[in-house]
Design a protein that fits this description.
heterotrimer; A mainly alpha; B mainly alpha; C mainly alpha; A: two-stranded antiparallel ribbon; 75% helix; B: 1% strand
Chain lengths: 488, 298, 528
């Protein structure tokens, strides 16, 4: 199992370069190669998923080159990590599969590197390692956003680049501070030492890390680059960015926050930030005419909701956050792929004109994706939203729940506007890439079927088989797993 | 035996009373207008004449309309106490009466509709709007009487007014009596609220396409309606009556006052009439509610 | 069978389930055989789905499931109405209310229970939040602004379902919650909403009277009747409750039948405007007959069923001495006379219009549901005892006959006497001198020449103009358009304010980053 963990990261890393070289001969070669690699990744991550989810005590720790932590780097996979892992690889494969054939070998190579970075980030247990992968992720994203080399893409990419660089710098300073204070880079060990930090130190490091990860994650007010970059990128890249990249950044930040910054004040700050992110994004998104930009605002809003859900200390909150994440990934991925390809075909991203050449599968996909995104029962989004509200009220944050209401309604209105325009079109367009049609049907199917599977899980979430962003859990997991093998 | 025959002939008796009112009424109006007027039994002669003439019809709905008008009007007669005879009654007469009163006009309206004449349609629309107007104060009065008496049965209302002239509701609930009288004028379609007929304007409105026996039926309906309206006022406000003569005289006094008022007034437009009915009588009835029923109306 | 278990879950569920299933079956039969070809399959499938959702909704006592199903019903209605532009007001109004319900659900779960009976125990505000969607769904002031748009814009194949079942979901909700929480309902809530419902009923009646379109007229009529049922259910008085439920049944039958006739006419002629229709009685006599019966029932005239339910409801109000409310609803009732007559006059009677050809009678299978609803309505009028018992059982009350004072026997006597009198009238009419039938060109014209196209010699536009003029200010006030405009401008202004946040300038974005760090530093005081 540990080997799979390593493979899931290393394989796409190497394959990225190989694919680029292979693609020099012809695009289809690199595309096939990339597809095979990503499919393998998907299968591996599914195997890992099955293993870890079999029982709450199952974790996998992969140690590199036999150097034990805290000296060496380790990969740590608990249930929440493998969920993210599985869906990341699923979305990567799907977005590649739905990409037009005309995308060059540059594209395929970059996608593979992106997948590698994502997988590494989700699994990593060492803070500087996280920084390295984070850099890879950012750089690859910059390149992918600028793929089209048009003025709009370059501008978006530059904005993203500048903000991302500042963020990385902040991140580096924060990590350096931590290293200076604790002398170690291993997450578990730092977590042990974190309670002794002074208030000032905690505040400073929290701020730096918040900015560092928050820019990538799309937390208000650092998410402004999102709304230029996601529309400008090609549609598979938009799907990936919205669907998994920002979520992984959020996941990272929450992982670190849960380990180092356990003061309830931090949770409150994050709750507030989440609320404001959601509110502002939905309010501004209501007035958008560019469909991809509209979807980008919706993404930022959902990130706000996820942030709120994950910052609640309870199991219900965590489950709500997970459901929101899965829902958003599937729905937004589907929406970006459909809407993006429709607007590519009609050449215009304006809401009145983008759906001119919609086809039947586009309509079905947009309807399913839109309804799921909004949380129409019986979709997963609905379960996520209900659980979020219940979690908020149970934790005593009734006022937050009340404040959410008008913005949720706003979101419903503008997403339904989008869906309505799509459904109103004549539906006689044709999609050239068969892979896209397959992906759309499969995702629609998953969206419909997943609620049935999930609903078997009890709503009494104490009985859930999931680990969360829980410090005790993490430390226990690390210790018990490391002690299990005779590697000491 | 006696009562069965009485029941069967009650509509006829009511018709005759109504016809007599119509005859005497036209004579009184003529006198007020300083002329002699037609013979006293003229309406009766008219009805007989109409019933014996040929007529035209526009369809089965037209036919059905007049049947409903006649039957509905006669039905009302059965539920209004006649002198000392409560006729058919139960615990909630007044409420049933309110519903039954709607049947005959409905019939006439349906018949009129199939006649396809715009004059008739205008007339009916005005009649319905007027009805909307006067029903508001009417129902306030009825509700007031029911609540005051504590029961919706005619037996109870009549017995509450026994024991001397001072017990009559016209003296105990004068505001209600005034409002009800006011409403009666529109209900019977007399000046100043005869806009639904408006003979010189819309060629007598709903009745324009009726001829022969159809018009005869409508005349019978009108006569029965006159009887019913006056009898209701007598039963509600003047303590009913013990004998037929007393009953007839009381009804006639009501009718006389009504005719005198109506003879000297001009016609109002529908809008003005409805507006008036929604304001002045309603205010009076509301004051009546507060005065006679107290605060329990809310 | 699971379906049977669900329907029999409890008496209230049984009542509503039977009615909903009955309606769905009748409506589907009508739609299939009415000759409407387009979109019937999708509509039927979605309606079936909606019916299933509703059946589950009626049966459940779990608040989370109730909420989920309620929201599904809202969304399905939105999708079935098939007019995103006009249904958006309905959507956001419903969603807004539903999220308040969600908060009430969350608070009840936090309180420790998943049962509907416990909602009121948390606190009275919780109950009100939970019931907010019911009020919005029933279209009571001040939540009546979405009604016009949804009903007039809705897909014609769905509008009957909308009017007969969906419009009354709020009533089910109120019954379900209130019956399980006796004594916990705040008095002021009941008072306020009874009078609000009264004003809504009058407002809706005025709009129906002034309407120039058959479907709009029927929709406002629906709203008016629903407001009446809502108020009587809110009253929680035995008579009023029974009356309310029987009126639910009555109204469902009436609207189902009336909409069927109108939708059929729309399908064949493409229009439902009064000024373009007329004289359908000559080709559709049976439809006219059943429509007439249903119209009489709607106006509340014996011997049709409408009178029974209205009677009970009025009696409930009188028992509670709410005379002012009775007055409001009575005015609405009289208004119903007006618009029922307009429907009959302008669609079926009246003169044939040039632009529309006459339409042949409905297929026997399509007219069957219409006939059934008219006949059941008649049955309720003359033999109402089993229906009243059915409603009482649904409410968990035992209905032991003290009501002979108002007497079903009494209505029977009335009907018998009326029948005899009609017979007399007919016989007399037959015995009197003969009549002859003339074509409609032989009308009285006060010596004017008939216009060349006689079809225009008709009065069917602006039928109730004086009353509409009088009520105009009142109607405009309560249509709340002014409020909607105010909100729209307000939100647009806020939106403009916030748009500046994402202005596109990189310097601004960099500033945001820095400010976050600075602000977080202020936290150092609060940490230890």
């Amino acid at each position: 199992m540990e080997k799979f963990l390593v493979l899931v990261f290393v394989l796409p890393l190497i394959a990225g370069f190989v694919s680029y070289i292979a693609g020099l001969k012809g695009n289809h070669l690199s595309k096939i190669f990339t597809a095979i690699v990503l499919l393998t990744n998907l299968v591996l991550s599914y195997k890992i998923f099955k293993y870890v989810m079999a029982s709450a005590d199952n974790r996998i720790i992969a140690v590199f080159s036999g150097w034990m932590p805290p000296l060496g780097i380790n990969f740590y996979a608990d249930s929440i990590a493998v969920i993210f892992l599985l869906f990341a690889n699923l979305l990567a494969f799907a977005s590649l599969f739905s990409a037009k054939l005309s995308y060059s070998n540059r594209f395929h190579g970059l996608i593979l590197l992106l997948t590698a970075a994502l997988n590494g980030l989700i699994l990593s247990g060492d803070i500087f390692n996280i920084f390295v992968f984070f850099e890879i992720l950012c750089l690859v994203s910059f390149a992918l956003v600028a793929y089209y080399r048009k003025a709009e893409s370059i501008e978006a990419s530059v904005k993203y680049f500048v903000l991302g660089s500042i963020a990385s710098a902040m991140l580096l300073i924060g990590i350096a501070l931590i290293y200076a204070k604790t002398g170690t880079l291993n997450l578990a060990q730092i977590a042990d030492m974190a309670p002794q930090w002074s208030g000032l130190f905690k505040a400073v490091v929290f701020g730096l890390l918040l900015v560092g990860f928050g820019v990538e994650a799309g937390i208000f007010p650092m998410n402004a680059w999102l709304f230029d970059a996601h529309p400008a990128a090609p549609y598979p890249v938009s799907a990936l960015l919205s669907g998994i990249v920002i979520e992984v950044a959020l996941y990272l930040f929450l992982r670190i926050k849960s380990l180092f910054f356990v003061d309830p004040l931090f949770s409150l700050v994050l709750l507030l930030l989440g609320l404001v992110t959601f509110a502002v994004s939905e309010l501004v998104g209501f007035y958008q005419r560019d469909v991809k930009r509209l979807l980008a605002y919706s993404s930022a809003g959902q990130i706000g909701l996820m942030l709120m859900a994950f910052s609640l200390p309870t199991k219900i909150g965590m489950f709500a956050g997970l459901l929101l994440f899965i829902n958003h990934l599937l729905a937004k991925g589907l929406l970006f792929i459909s809407v993006g390809s429709m607007s590519d075909r009609s050449g215009d991203r304006d809401i009145d004109r983008f759906s001119e050449s919609a086809s039947f599968v586009d309509k079905v996909a947009v309807l399913a994706g839109g309804l799921s995104l909004l949380g129409v029962p019986p979709s997963i989004g609905f379960m996520g939203k209900v659980l979020l509200f219940i979690a908020l009220v149970k934790a005593g944050f009734l006022a937050f729940a009340l404040c959410l209401i008008p913005f949720v309604v706003l979101e419903a209105l503008y997403v339904m506007r989008l869906v309505g325009r799509t459904l109103a079109s004549s539906g006689d367009g044709r999609i050239e890439c068969p892979g896209q049609v397959v992906v759309q049907w499969v995702f629609t199917f998953i969206i419909i079927v997943l609620p049935i599977i999930v609903s078997r899980m009890s709503i009494q979430t104490d009985k859930l088989n999931l680990n969360g962003f829980n410090k005790q859990d993490y430390l226990y997991g690390m210790a018990s797993q490391l002690l299990k093998g005779d590697r000491l | 035996m006696n009562s069965v025959w009485f029941l069967v002939f009650l509509p006829l008796i009511a018709f005759l009373i109504g016809i007599s009112f119509m005859g005497i009424g036209t004579r009184i109006v003529a006198r007020i207008q300083r002329r002699y007027g037609p013979p006293l039994i003229q309406p009766f002669i008219d009805v007989i004449k109409l019933l014996s003439k040929d007529s035209i019809s526009y369809g089965w709905v037209f036919d059905m309309g007049v049947w409903m008008a006649l039957a509905g009007a006669a039905l009302v007669v059965y539920f209004v106490p006649f002198a000392d005879n409560i006729v058919l009654s139960g615990k909630a007469d007044v409420v049933v009466l309110m519903y039954i009163l709607a049947i005959a006009p409905l019939g006439m309206a349906l018949g009129t509709a199939q006649a396809k004449n715009p004059y008739a349609s205008i007339g009916i629309s005005r009649a319905l709007m007027l009805m909307l107007g006067y029903d508001l104060p009417l129902v306030m009065v009825i509700l007031g009487i029911i609540t005051y008496t504590g029961s919706a049965s005619f037996a109870d209302i009549l017995s509450a007014q026994q024991g001397g002239i001072g017990n009559w509701y016209i003296f105990r609930l004068p505001l209600f009596a005034i409002v009800y009288f006011w409403v009666m004028i529109a209900e019977m379609g007399k000046h100043p609220f005869d806009v639904l007929i408006a003979p010189s304007e819309i060629a007598s409105g709903p009745m324009v396409e009726f001829s022969g026996k159809y018009l005869g039926y409508l005349f019978i309906y009108m006569a029965l309606h006159y009887y019913a309206a006056c009898a209701l006022f007598v039963n509600f406000f003047m303590g009913g009556a013990a004998t037929f003569i007393e009953f007839y005289l009381k009804m006639f006094s009501v009718f006389f006052v009504l005719i005198c008022i109506s003879a000297v007034m001009a016609r109002t437009t529908t809008q003005r009439a409805v507006y008036m009915y929604w304001t002045k009588p309603v205010v009076l009835a509301f004051i009546g509610w507060l005065a006679y029923l107290g605060w329990r109306i809310f | 069978m699971m379906l049977l278990d669900m329907i029999k879950a409890d008496n209230l569920a049984f009542f509503f389930s039977v009615l909903t299933i009955g309606f769905f079956v009748a409506n589907t039969i009508f739609l299939i055989f009415s000759g409407i070809k387009k979109g019937i399959v999708l509509n039927t499938i979605l309606s079936l789905f909606l019916t299933m959702v509703l059946l589950m909704l009626y049966a459940t006592h779990n608040i989370v499931i109730f909420f989920a199903l309620w929201e599904m019903a809202t969304w399905l209605t939105y999708l079935l109405a098939n007019n995103p532009k006009k249904s958006s007001k309905y959507l956001w109004a419903s969603l807004l209310a539903e999220f308040f319900m969600l908060i009430a659900v969350a608070r009840t779960v936090a309180y420790g229970s998943y049962d509907i009976a416990m909602v009121a125990h948390v606190d009275p505000l919780n109950l009100i939040m939970f019931c907010l969607p019911f009020i919005v769904k029933s279209g009571i002031l001040p939540f009546n602004f979405w009604v016009t748009d949804l009903y007039t814009g809705s897909d014609k194949r769905f509008v009957a379902y909308l009017s007969a079942i969906i419009g009354k979901l709020g009533i089910f909700g109120i019954l379900r919650v209130f019956l399980l929480s006796p004594g916990l309902i705040p008095e002021w809530f009941i008072y306020t909403f009874i009078y609000l419902a009264g004003i809504t009923a009058v407002w809706a009646t005025f709009k129906a009277v002034g309407s120039e379109d058959a479907i709009e007229s029927l929709s406002f009529s629906s709203l008016s009747q629903v407001a009446f049922i809502f108020a009587s259910v809110l009253l929680m008085n035995k008579s009023a409750l029974i009356g309310g439920l029987v009126h639910y049944l009555n109204h469902m039958l009436i609207k189902m039948g009336m909409f069927m006739a109108v939708v059929y006419i729309w399908a064949k002629t493409g229009t439902t405007e009064f000024k373009r229709l007329g004289d359908f009685v000559s080709k559709m006599p049976f439809s006219f007959l059943f429509f007439l019966m249903l119209g009489i029932s709607l106006a509340g005239v014996p011997p049709m069923g409408g009178v029974i339910s209205k009677w009970f409801m009025y009696e409930g109000f009188i028992e509670e001495s709410k005379l002012l409310a009775v007055l409001l609803f009575f005015v609405a009732g009289v208004g119903s006379f007006l618009y029922v007559y307009r429907l009959l006059h302008s669609i079926f009677l009246g003169r044939k219009k040039p632009s529309i050809g006459l339409v042949s009678e409905m297929n026997i299978l399509a007219i069957l549901p219409l006939a059934a609803s008219a006949l059941i309505s008649f049955l309720i009028g003359v033999y109402s005892r089993p229906f009243i018992r059915f409603a009482a059982k649904a409410l968990g009350m035992d209905f032991s006959e003290p009501r002979t004072d108002i007497g079903f026997a009494y209505i029977g006597i009335v009907s018998a006497v009326f029948g005899a009198l009609i017979l007399f009238a007919v016989v007399l009419w037959l015995l009197l001198p003969k009549h002859r039938y003339v074509p409609d060109t032989e009308g009285y014209t006060a010596a004017a020449y008939l216009p060349k196209d006689i079809q225009h010699w008709d009065y069917s536009y602006n039928f109730y103009a004086p009353v509409v003029r009088l009520g105009d200010k009142f109607v405009r006030l309560f249509s709340l358009d002014w409020l909607a405009r105010f909100w729209k401008e307000y939100i647009a202004a806020i939106g403009e304010l916030f748009r500046g946040i994402y202005s596109g300038s990189l310097k601004l974005y960099g500033f945001y980053l820095m400010s976050v760090i600075v602000l977080v530093l202020f936290l150092k005081e609060m940490l230890k």
